[in-house]
Design brief:
alpha+beta, DNA Primase, Chain A, DNA primase DNAg catalytic core, N-terminal domain, Dna Topoisomerase Vi A Subunit, Chain: A, domain 2, 5 domains, five-stranded antiparallel sheet, five-stranded mixed sheet, globular, zinc-finger, Znf_CHC2, DNA replication, primosome, DNA primase
Amino acid sequence: MIPQSFISDLLNRVDIVDVVGRYVQLKKGGANFQGLCPFHNEKSPSFTVSPTKQFYHCFGCGAHGTAIGFLIEYSGMGFVDAVKDLAQGVGMVVPEQDDKIPPAQRAQMQAQSVALSDAMTLAADYYKGQLRKAPSAIAYLKGRGLTGEIAARFALGYAPEGWDNLRAVFPKYDAPVLAEAGLVIDKVDEEGRHIKRYDRFRERVMFPIRNTKGQVIAFGGRIMEQGEPKYLNSPETPLFSKGSELYGLFEARQAIRDAGYVLVTEGYMDVVALAQMGFPQAVATLGTACTTTHVQKLLRQTDNVVFSFDGDRAGRKAARRALEACLPHVSDDKTIKFLFLPAEHDPDSYIREFGAPAFEQQVQEAMPLSQFLLREAAGEHDLDSPEGRARVQFDAKPMLQAMTPTALRLQIVRGLANMTQSSPAEIEALFELAKPVAANRKAPPKSKRQEPVGLELKIIRAIVSHPSLALQLDESAQQAFAQFGPEQCEHLVHLVRLAQELGDNGTFAALAQQLKEQGPEYDAIIGEIAAAPEPEIETERMWLTATVRQLKLDMLKAELNQLFSAGLSSEELGVRYREITAKQDMLMREEQLELSNR
């Protein structure tokens, strides 16, 4: 786990205007910057970025967050990846609790990563330049119906014939980084001695593979004539893992938001051709089966995923693997579907033969995950025999066990029970499903905590807006919060301590990020603060001081009223009475002193 102190320091160092400005065109508007919201369609800007709060907020859709939150929502990065990305930009090294790598070795690893990234960028520029000089490659792409605009959007290139063309790009052709990046191949003899080095990609149309930051991390090369392999991909490198990356995701992010879904295909050309034909929300796996990491990345981008597979046996097999990868991440607010085209078609050929409207209809009529799962379980088994029904249950068991307890799982259980002449409760018991849904008749109790209102809400807003104000709240101030109720007091004290841990330099952005990681409880308040003009900290400080003083006085007054019924001896009563009145006098003197100093 990354220490919270590091997160706070990082958010103090990065400039959210710079971070958001990489992806959204921003213009100065008063104290803030404005632009079109990247999270929903709009024609007039309602998206603001505050350099003082280090926070973004959209008045249209309500999206808000810190620089970390923006990278997570916009780029689809995980929390750790977003932190590492920002840290790299400001020269910070992310600490990890179990990290035992010596600093020198870590610095060497970072230097290697930069060198690999630079090499891939140079190679991509070279291949892109070569495409303009290759009539045969241009003719091939035009023959596939692609325009120069689409080729430029995906930065397509061409690797010409010849064994060492990259020697013109890299004067140190024998540098280890070229082999580590997968750009060249070193041939060795039987005894492991180096014989020669040559370019990996030759006479192929080149598809650069970019990560969520837009950096080239690998290549896919397609042969234009007959030959094997049809596609040649970069090997696994420190930059590139096939099971984690999706081709076209960087280019498709905004289109996915606009369309409301992502279309997952099986090949590079499908992605590019679909973009050409009006479906820029397409991505593709990279010559490997769909993985759970792929599914997580997709569901960070959208709530609706449509997998498109060829109708042949290989397509059905790939669809089954995608289904299995999706099951652990199925939830009731996400929709996953499977589109099966006729056996003789892939998306590229289908859309060219039947047109975009016909393909759009295929997408809309794609098979829901629940239906596909039951169909896979049913297979060719005889549902009229006990043995056939038992085999269906046997095949369905591992798939249902992979799912979390959701309403959708219950619906699938009911469908399976109906198919196999069983009851849902019998299926759940037989499959030993975690937290059975059908057997539970009572909904889990909801939290009874009331939403903060009035004075409690104002104190929360002041602390979240200016976390450093919490440093003036001592133990007696926190005890005074008990007047709001025990649960409210507990939440307020927790908030105060989180804010105090940030120290003198605690910021709204740092505390908001921390609260967001703990759950949605403060989301509405954070959104209100982000949307409102920033209050003056001194005004807030004076108000909070006066408010807490009054809470202390109210608490002392209540204690004084109850003192005479506490059953104390005369001596004990006198001592406690003097203690309470002394505290009251001190608080009153503080108030008078502040008034005289204004």
